[in-house]
Amino acid sequence: MPKKPLKILQVAPEIAPYSKVGGLADVSGALTKEMSRQGHDVRVITPLYGFLNPQENGWEAEPGAFSVHLGNHREEFCRLWRDTYPGSEAQVYFIEYGKYYDRHEIYTGPWGGHSDNHERFAFLSRAAIDYCHSRKWYPDVIHCHDWTCGFVPIYLNTTEYNTPLGRAATVFTIHNLMHQGVFGREVLAFAGLPTSEVFRPDNAESMGLVNMMKGGIYNSTKITTVSPNYAAEIQGPEYGCGLNHILKYRAADLIGIINGIDTDEWNPATDPHLPANYSVDDLSGKAVCKRALQETLGLEQNPKLPLFCAVARLFDQKGLDLLAGIVPWLMEEMKIQVALLGAGDPGLEQTFRDLATRYPGRVGTHIGFSNPLAHLFEAGGDFFLMPSRFEPCGLNQMYSMAYGTLPVVRSTGGLVDSVEQYSEGRSRGTGFRFEEASGKALYYAMGWACSTWYDRPEDYRMLQRNAMTRDLSWSNSASKYLDVYSWAIDARLRGMGVVEDAKPVQS
Ligand code: ADP
Ligand code: GLC
Question: Do 56 and 200 sit in the same domain of this protein?
Answer without folding.
Answer: yes
